[in-house]
Structures are given as structure tokens and as C-alpha cells.
Amino acid sequence: MPLSEEELRLLEQMERALSEEDPKFVSTLRGTSLRRAARRRAVLAGAVFVLGVVLLMTGAVINIWPIGIAGFVVMLGSATLGLNALRGQAQAAAVPSPEAAGQPAGHSGFTVIDGGRRGKMRSRSRGSSGSFMERVEERWRRRREENGGF
């Protein structure tokens, strides 16, 4: 029997809260560490960057400019992905213990659609008192009030 929309929203909200609260636990559940995955993406981006350099130089040597342009685009894309992976690796290394402040939901490992609410979640203070369930209930109550009781 499939879950209702309200149950799915509640489940996604609890997943988001758990991933913000304890990113190491989330990465343990996924079976891969955050640093290892980021390192793998950075190495792959480096290899693709080298392929882009080869394409760029091949296009320049044989004087076919579309190949050179394609090589440049490949280099640019892989450099962007590689830098993002290195930034993700640095963020994973910056979380020394489960008690540390969590990462944004998009970087935690769960595949939950954020619905554009990541910015709001970051701006709120993380030092609020109360248990995990109290915070989840408070967020749920606030969202129901924002949506007119639905």
C-alpha cells in the first residue's frame, strides 16, 4: 500500500532533519563515506580534464577549430565538477563528530527533493533547544500554518 502525500512529506522532512543533524550517520547508512565519494568525483573530473586538454591540442594542431572548442568546453565542465567535488570533500572533512553542525540537505547523501527550502533551513539557528522530535514537530506545525492549515 503506497504512502499518502502527507506521509511522504513527513518522511522527507524527517530524512532532511536527520541528514542535517548527523551527516556521518547518513553516510554510514548509504555505505560510502562523503570524503571517498568526493575524492572519486575529483579524480574522475581530473581525468576528463586531461581528455579535454588532448582534444583542445588536437584541434589546434590539425587546425579544426570545432574540435578545439569542444576540448575547451570539456575542460571547463570537468574543472567545474572537480572544484565542486573538492569543495564537497572539504565540507565532509570539516564535520569531525556527529555532534557537529550538519551540512545542507543537498550535500548529505539522501536523495530528497528540497523544494527550494534549503536557504530557509540554513538561515535558521541550529542551536535551538529541544529534542529531535520536538524540532520536527515544530517545523511541521510551522509549515501547516504557512500553507493555510493544509
UniProtKB/TrEMBL annotation:
Q: Name one Pfam family in it.
A: DUF3040
Alphabetized UniProt keyword annotations: Membrane, Transmembrane, Transmembrane helix
What is the native source organism of this protein? Answer: Nocardioides marinus
What residue intervals traverse the membrane? Answer: 42-61, 67-86
Composition bias, kind Basic and acidic residues: at what positions? 134-150
Q: What is this protein called?
A: DUF3040 domain-containing protein
The ranges of region (Disordered) come to: 96-150
What InterPro entries does the entry give?
Answer: DUF3040
Question: Which residues fall in a coiled-coil region?
Answer: none
